[in-house]
TrEMBL record:
Compositionally biased intervals (Basic and acidic residues): 16-28
Annotated keywords: Membrane, Transmembrane, Transmembrane helix
Species lineage: Bacteria, Bacillati, Actinomycetota, Actinomycetes, Micromonosporales
UniProt region (Disordered), positions on chain: 1-55
Protein's name in the database: Uncharacterized protein
Transmembrane segments: 80-99, 171-192, 199-216, 222-244, 256-274, 280-297, 309-336, 390-409, 416-434, 461-481, 502-524
Amino acid sequence: MSEPSDEEASATTGEEPEKPGEPEKADPEAATGKSEAGEQKPDSDPFEAFAPVPEAVPGRARRISTRVATGAGRFLGHEWTLAAIGSVLLAALMTWPTLKHPASTIPQDIWDPTLQAWQMSWAGHVLTTDPAQLWNANAFFPNMYGYAFSDTLLGYAPAGMIGSGPVAAVVRYNIIFVLIFALAFFGAYALARQLGAGRTGAAVAGAAFAYAPWRLGQAGHLHVLSIGGIALALAMLARGHGFSLTKGYEPDKRRWGWVVAGWLVAAWQISLGFGIGIPFAYVLLGIVLITAVLWGYRHVRVWAVSRPFGWKLFLANLGGGLAFAAVGALMAYPYLQVLKQHPYARRSEEILSLFSPPIQGFFISPPESWLWGDAYASARQSLTWAPEMALLPGFFLYGLAFAGLFVSTWRIRHRVYLGIGVVVSIMLAMGTRGPGDGEFGYLALYRALPGFDGIRTSGRLMVWTTLFLALLAAGAVSAFARQAVELFADRTQTDVGTRAGFWPRFATLIPLVLVLIEGLHIPYPTNPVVPKAPLAMSTLQGPLMVLPTDELTDMNIMLWSTDGFPQMVNGGSGFTPRGQEQLRLTMQQFPDEASVTALRDLKIRTVVVIRSRAVGSSYERAIDAPIDGLGLDRTEQGDVVLYKLTD
């Protein structure tokens, strides 16, 4: 008999025949584990009839660790984290060997750096013991406001609260010395990025601002090197206002918190010293006035343009500006008192002329430059005061900035503004050697604006010339980088965002390397070793006087006094009180009746003579001169000859 067809079989079983090409239907018993009668099949899991197998849920500890790891990865891989870490590592390398022996050596020389190490130590000490006496330092006794005889570095007071004594002061100074270069690089990098530069261009701006050759000659002046807060504050303020040079004002990017942070950083910057802070304050004031006028004009007169500002942003600027002004006023008060008590401390126009650099000074490097130092040795001899007149910002920087006038990420009008900034800042930095012997430049500011009469070195306005040049260079390098990547992508038919753009991007690092090479200092055999304090200094009570005494020697003595901070006549800075100067002359005959009488009048009961320093000096007589009938007791403690005035 023949087999039934598919149709006949379906008629017999009641099932539809399978059509060619269709998949087989799933077995309901295989899907449910049950037979048609509803009975459980013996080889299936009995619990699957009630619920699926639950998924494994990680525990709380694992969830927390995963979140922490993810957050840490994002933080460490963020551009700003990498920029900050890179800034510190680069600073440690570029300032080497500062951190090689941080407890016993100090950069540049043993004079101004030891004074500034004392300044940080005094601020940290007095703010934790007797803040009301901040300005009446232990040095320059019996003068009041001795802490305001020079720029104070008050903003570094938190660091001064860590540790005590001369060794801690030197370690603290060396660490801050490295970090200020890192902050200068990071601040300029952040500013260039906020204004619209690419990463490579911003890195060039940071390197140019932090490691310009002229700054090598200022390595002993921490208050001059501390400029990172300027660039960082401008970057924060620009970010808070949603402003960039490439896109202009973007109201949707306003952030009042960044505005407040920018003003606070600016206030911190001015607390480091007025030599750099006063011009910065006037630049901020100028930016505020110009921005307000331009915004008001466009908002009121150009009706088609809507430029919302908002109360939050207004209040943030008002509050931040008032905080900045308050810090400036509190800092200015003791300096005004110094001028009131010592009118001769005011910087005269003759002093300005002494330190005003000629135009060729902007093309001459300091001797500390590894690349250009020896080449310009003869040129520096033509400068009357080379340490303040060798102001080369870098020939590579000049070239990149010049290129930035023609090819740049910035708009043409912004390039023009930056170029004008370079020219004007150089004219002002020339002081009395500027146009019209300074009558149309620095002298006009000196006579018209409060505070400028306290700045003796106009050449330090080179800070602003360097910043303008750095931004022009950043615009040029950013444009070169973008064009190089786009050209490479067109030729290789690849996307600019792929790895194919690595090599053209890598090539644009060449300007960065060139700028850093110009910023290298000569390879010091060692940084100078800081003189150790005599053991007797740690046990003496003030008021006292240490011999020999002069402006430079007293800077070392101020550092030694950080172990206890006894009151003392000694003190060195950019300003010498006449009373101190007269006492120094009188003490050249110590011990005699006139010098002892002068000491008694000032209630000074202790005189310390350092034998090794007194030999061959004007104070050599104090080592072993007769003391009969003078009311003095003399003892010797190692290298120290100690005198006590008796009743």
